[in-house]
TrEMBL record:
This is histidine kinase. The chain holds residues 344 to 628 of 628 of the full protein. The gene is walK. Signal peptide: none annotated. It comes from the Bacteria. It is found in: Cell membrane. Residues 41-272 form the Histidine kinase domain. The lineage of its organism: Bacteria, Bacillati, Bacillota, Bacilli, Lactobacillales.
């Protein structure tokens, strides 16, 4: 608490009272501390890939370039790290727009069932293509997984920004794939209640230790930094998902058991009276 005192005086100079104003500066101090921490995190997160780029570049200049196998391998690392940095900067820009409230949320009435199916079709296709490519490139059988769908057949018209919600679902699905074991099943569910639609994505991966559960939606927080980095992670995916879901009146959370798997949930407001048509049946001519 910060206290400001002022005296109440008569014209004669006689003091008749004392005013004490107490300001609660805890919140401001917390914001300042978080901001400093964030800048320090960003600097650190960018320095790590830059340092590794520099060492690979030096190794190439120092002779590795003459070895075709080594140079191919080093260039691959340089490419992966550069792409990861680009992803990180794009994510930081998205977060900054969301923070400043300048991210345009273009809400429209969307059939959520259709949107989710469309995203899952895209993932099925991507997984298949990725696996074919990995097999052709390395000759090694890549990690296999299966996406199981348990969706309601009902049309669920929800007012959302489809691009932003797609980004949140993409981030969670990508994690489910990254942290799934070989042969794992990712179960995607969509249910509805009187006022909400609830989407869940469950994997059979490593799970998240109890002590980390509260923090995994924080920017740059990762249970295992080295592991996340090796898989191309930036530690920003879940924080973006949380921001976009909450910006649209929704809620995001996770349940997880170590060595059993994790389930991520997204809840969004839903009004069953919405039909998505231009006119309701009764009012249509
Ligand atoms: P990252 O780019 O590291 O995946 P995210 O913000 O998407 O960053 O996730 C933050 C951290 O939460 C991850 O590094 C990982 O430790 C943990 N995590 C996220 N999703 C899962 C999952 N499905 N299973 C296990 N751990 C997960």
């Amino acid at each position: 608490l910060q206290a400001d005192f002022s005296l109440i005086k008569r014209s004669t100079g006689f003091v008749t009272g004392l005013v004490c104003v107490l300001h609660d500066v805890t919140e401001q101090q917390k914001i300042d501390r978080d901001r400093r921490q964030f800048v320090s995190n960003v600097s650190h997160e960018l320095r790590t890939p830059l340092t590794s780029l520099r060492s690979y570049e030096e190794a190439l200049s120092d002779g590795a370039m003459d070895d075709p196998k080594l140079s191919k391998q080093f260039l691959h690392v340089i490419q992966e790290e550069t792409e990861r940095m680009i992803r990180m900067i794009s994510s930081l820009l998205s977060l900054s727009r969301l923070d400043q409230g300048t991210a345009k949320i273009s809400v429209e009435l969307v059939n959520f069932n259709e949107l989710f199916s469309y995203i899952l079709d895209r993932f099925d296709m991507m997984i298949q293509k990725d696996q074919e490519k990995q097999l052709a490139d390395s000759g090694v059988q890549p990690k296999r997984y299966q996406i199981k769908r348990l969706l309601t057949h009902r049309d669920l018209w929800v007012e959302i920004d489809p691009d932003k919600i797609t980004q949140a679902i993409d981030n969670i699905l990508n994690n489910a794939l990254k942290y799934s074991p070989d042969g794992g099943t990712i179960t995607c569910r969509l249910v509805y209640t009187q006022n909400n639609v609830i989407l869940s994505i469950a994997d059979q991966g490593l799970g998240i230790p109890r002590k980390d559960l509260k923090r995994i939606f924080d920017r740059f927080y990762r249970v295992d930094k080295a592991r996340s980095r090796k898989q191309g992670g930036t530690g920003l995916g879940l924080s973006i998902a949380k921001e976009v879901v909450e910006a649209q009146g929704g809620h995001i959370w996770v349940n997880s058991t170590e060595n059993r798997g994790s389930t991520f949930y997204i809840l969004l407001p839903y009004n069953p009276a919405e039909t998505g048509g231009e006119w309701d049946d009764e009012t249509a001519e």
